[in-house]
Model the fold of this input.
Amino acid sequence: MLRPIIYGTVWSPPSCAVRITARAIGLTLDLREINLLKGENHSKEFRKLNPQRTVPTLDDNGFILCNSFAIMTYFVGKYSKSDTLYPNDLHKRAIVDQRLHFSSGNLSVRMTDAIKPIFRGERKNVSAESDQLVHAAYDILNEFLSESKWLAGETYTLADISCSTYINNFEILFPIDDYPNISKWMGNCREHLPGFEQIVTTGLKQLHQTMDQISKR
Done:
């Protein structure tokens, strides 16, 4: 059987999250880089694979799946020997799902909306309104983490993997110094999430290089 193929972008938080999930369950991936800034996700070949034109996109021996959360839960269901990352227990899984929806519907949306004008060359810095919205999301996340070591309990799950990649990659724009629970949790993520430092550090370097190039236009 061929390795599952992931079409992703090295600095993309969802792409990083999928790779960390794979590392956590011992799954080796065939990584294919898609350069978003060059518009490679709009190519005819990629549109045929994924009409949404988003990364990451999975090709698991002909089974095509888009959206990082769908891919992460699929990986756990098919390849993991444990349900720790995505529990079978209904109540525990519901909490993980809720935190994942917070990541996609709140944290990531606000961060993405804040940085889009910068990537488009329309602004040099994050607007005050966008900054306020992101920090409002931080307030919620900080409160979540007042209840337990990890976002959904006392062990890390897919929720921690997802949220931490966003914060790590964009912390330079949205510092977490004023959020003690988030700061402590991010330290735990960097220490305990398999492959976290290696995967996100590589992506972060490229992201900073990309932002520097954009700022000089």
